[in-house]
Amino acid sequence: MNVTRILVTGLLVSLCLEVVASGADEAAPVYPGKDWEARTPEQVGLDAGKLKELGEYAGGSGCVVRHGYMVYTWGDASKRTDVASAAKPVYAHFLFKAVEDGRISSLDEHANKWEPRLNQINPDLGYKDRGITWRHFANQISCYGLTEAPGTAFAYNDWQMSLFWDTLFQKVYGAGFETVDADVLHPMLTDRLQCQDNPTLMAFGLKDRPGRLGISPRDFARFGLLYLRKGRWKDEQLISREHATMAVTSPLPNSIPRTAGKEAQMIPQQRSIGSKNIPDNQCDHVGSYSWLWWTNGIGRDGTRHWPDVPVDTYGCFGHGGLRAMVVVPALDLIVSWNDTKIRSAEMENHALGLLKEATISAGPGSDRIVADPEHPQWLKRKDGRPFFMCGPGDPEDFLYRGKLNPDGTRDGDQMALIDKLKGTGANCIYLMAVRSHGGDGDKTHNPFVDNDPRKGINPKVLDQWETWFAEMDKSGIVIYFFVYDDAVRIWNTGDAVGKEEKDFIHSLVHRFEHHANLIWCIAEEYQEQLSVKRARGIAAEIRAADDYDHPIAVHKLNGLDFSEFADEPNIDQFAIQYNIADADALHEAMVNTWKQAEGKYNLNMSEAKDWGTGQELRFRCWACAMGGAYVMVLGMDVATTPKSDLEDCGRLVRFFESTDFDKMSPADELRFAGTQYVLAQPGTSYIAYAPQLRGEIGLKNMSPGVYKLRWFDCATGKELTQEGVRVAAGNQSWTKPSEIGDEIAVYIQRIG
After folding, report:
1. What is the domain count for the chain?
2. Is 80 exceeded by the pLDDT of residue 371?
3. N vs C: which end of the chain shows fewer Cβ within 10 Å?
4. What share of the chain is helix, strand, coil (3-state, %, to 5)?
5. How far is the first Cα of the chain from the last one, in angstroms, to the nearest whole number?
6. Is the per-residue pLDDT at 1 higher than 50?
7. Strand intervals (E) in 674-718
């Protein structure tokens, strides 16, 4: 099943993701109590039919959790089962906890401090096992029982895993097989999670491979929720955010090879927690193994582990996939299953693809912004409603305002700025993912760990952005999201989009594509950093990753000619920089660019200077809108702009969205009497505008019939409608009602 392209109509649901973010703007996540709180699939934006298809495909038993609610189960999700290798992240959890509690000094502490017998084996190999650390154990690179030195090769090895378990639980925690549940597992983890079905580390009893986890799908989902919430459970941080994040985001590099599998000496009487085969190595890590979790990494062949699901997916699997628990942060989803028919990565990918499809079939789709295939000169809502955009562009540094915290987040005024926009009707703002590395921002204006693209994206930063974006989205404010600021140079790949850049783009898209009010923009002033070919390549990557098909824009440095992209299928909007204040000149520029576009794409007058305030600002905004362009004024700063100016933008939006402007084109040749600018679908509907009406407003070449006139005061928002106005053929003008001011727009509809 080619899920990737099947899904290019939607990914996430238009519900606000309840993601833990740092700072005062933190959303309140949902957790289960003694019992899971249930929601229907439809209540959390999932398709029940698709979930049923998932359950039937998987077989066995399982459950699906979204936004902290139990939304679907199949089979007996309360049945406790040995989950085999899926238990391993629980071992890593207790390792991290031992470090945090001071039981061991660090992840790089040598295990021979606790297990001195490691000092006595493999003398012919230089007593190599003296060098085994806890980090080696938890990444399956200890090479215990094999000839390679610790840290040099990967071996998915049940003998070393038993040594890890015995050393950690029996010697560090001081718990025997008989007491580990009561002394460690329950008080430190499962009781805190309020597990329902009495998980145990003695799934087969005390004498049969002790250390194997017996747990039900619904209890295992609680463990997944703990890591989805970055180690936090209700009001308690059960494991540090740092460790919870590192555990699922630090896959082994592909440079670490798979072991050759040549047997070496082990501690006498060493047991295995599973396999009896020596030497033992059951699989390869292929860039997807991280602290006993499997991640959605890229293997040595350049392909992703699960190609049809978001890149931030991670999980644990036992018996080749028959037992599993998987977390999909981008979807705020957890799925857990036992005793299924799934036995391969391909089957895992298919099952997870069905889960992803369940989010698509349900929405959010109807209210999201999309390119209009019938009228590409304008955007629209998926449900067919018109969409207009007008509002501030500034502050460019929105994402990076305020004090920088040690974890990469910001203590800034972002929520205050959003609150200021709320209710005004102004509905857009610039957001730039990267403003460093040559851009206008300082060196910290990026979402990377330690400002280093090689270290990947800092998930805490994206979590905080999600909090702001969720608030913007539900308030109708467009997330106008630039990948790059001007002149940003990170990946030196010429005309090509390299693997690192592709992964970065896909990560951003998958993280935020669930928002309805979203427009992507490749880069501000793209020519400063990108060739045309590279810009096209970035657009193609955004399109491939975005399963909602949000519009994609490109912004150009002070130019009106976008002919280099005229035939580009992945670009929907041209964001214009035109630094001129004269309203008539602005209008003429928009009209000319509209003609150049030939109806193939839409325009956004996105950057200009010195547009003033009050009537001056209104005139310029209306001049652009009547020229066939959206209006997003970089230079209008939310922080300093009077609320009245924002309300003026909102009134323009409200007026346009109450018309059929999206079927109109600039038609100033039809102006008559005091009309200054015209948009028209000749013979059907018109908008006539005058910034300071003198005398009557009118149109040329009218078709005879009965019309409705809706007069709109641009300064106050007051409206007055005249029904049944009879018009003869030819030129026609009308007298403004006295209740309406002189700064007017009139929507003229033929009704008969």
Report:
1. 3
2. yes
3. C
4. 30, 20, 45
5. 51
6. no
7. 677-681, 685-690, 697-702, 705-713
Q: Using one digit for the tens of pLDDT, what is the confidence trace for 256-299?
A: 999 999 999 999 988 999 888 887 778 889 889 999 999 998 88
Same domain assignment for residues 633 and 700:
no
Contact yes or no for 594/603 (Cβ under 8 A) = yes
Phi, psi of 505, deg, nearest 5: -60, -45
Domain termination site, one of 362, 396, 423? 362
In this structure, the answer to whether residues 723 and 582 fall within a common structural domain is no
Domain containing 737 equals 668-750
| CB-based contact 613:642 (threshold 8 Å) | yes
* Contact (Cβ atoms closer than 8 angstroms) between residue 235 and residue 192: no
Question: Is the same domain home to 330 and 474?
Answer: no
Q: Residue 127 pLDDT > 50, yes or no?
A: yes
Report yes or no on 67 lying in a domain: yes
Both 623 and 515 in one domain: the answer is yes
Chain-centroid distance of CA 122 in Å reads 49
30 in a domain, yes or no? no
Report how far residue 545's alpha carbon sits from residue 542's, in angstroms, rounded to the nearest whole number: 5
- The angle subtended at Cα 490 by Cα 484 and Cα 492, nearest 5°, is 125
Query: How many C-beta atoms lie closer than 10 Å to residue 567's C-beta?
Result: 8
> What's the CATH code of the domain at 572?
3.20.20.80
CA distance 23 to 161: 38
Strands of the sheet with 671-673, listed across from one edge: 671-673, 697-702, 730-734
pLDDT digits (tens, 9 = 90+) for 569-622: 999 999 999 888 899 999 999 999 999 888 889 999 998 877 889 999 999 999
| Average pLDDT in the chain | 90
Q: What is the pLDDT of residues 159-208, one digit of tens each?
A: 999 999 999 999 999 999 999 999 999 999 999 999 999 999 999 988 89
Q: Which of 511, 504, 510 is nearest to 484 (CA)?
A: 504
Q: What is the enclosing helix (H) or strand (E) of 537?
A: helix 532-545
Quick check: 746 and 712 in contact, CB under 8 A?
Answer: yes
> Do 677 and 588 share a structural domain?
no
CA separation, residue 105 to residues 93, 111, 133, 231, 744 (Å): 16, 11, 11, 21, 73
Per cent of the chain over pLDDT 90 is 72
Confidence class of residue 303 from pLDDT cuts 50, 70 and 90?
Answer: confident
pTM for this structure?
A: 0.63
Give the C-alpha separation, 695 to 682, whole Å: 23
Confidence of residue 19 (pLDDT cuts 50, 70, 90): very low
Nearest alpha-carbon partner for 485 in 446, 543, 429: 446
Q: Where are the beta strands (DSSP E) in 351-396?
A: 369-371, 379-381, 390-394
The CATH number of residue 177's host domain is 3.40.710.10
CA-CA distances (angstroms) from residue 467 to 25, 30, 415, 492? 7, 15, 9, 32
Residue 44 maps to a domain = no
Residues 531 and 421 in one domain: yes
148, 279: one domain:
yes
Rounded-to-integer distance, Cα 323 and Cα 346, Å: 15
Per-residue pLDDT tens for 97-112? 999 999 999 999 999 9
Contacts of 100 (CB under 8 A, 6+ apart): 239, 240, 243
Of the pLDDT bands very low, low, confident and very high (cuts 50, 70, 90), residue 360 is low
Q: Tell me: do 683 and 641 sit in the same domain.
A: no
The rounded distance, in Å, linking the Cα atoms of 648 and 645 is 5
- Residue 69, in any domain of the structure: yes
Q: CA 329 to CA 510: how far, in whole Å?
A: 10
Domain end call among 362, 378, 410: 362
Token output for 267 = 């501690």
Distance CA 691, CA 744 (A): 6
Per residue in 662-675, pLDDT (tens digit) is: 999 999 999 999 99
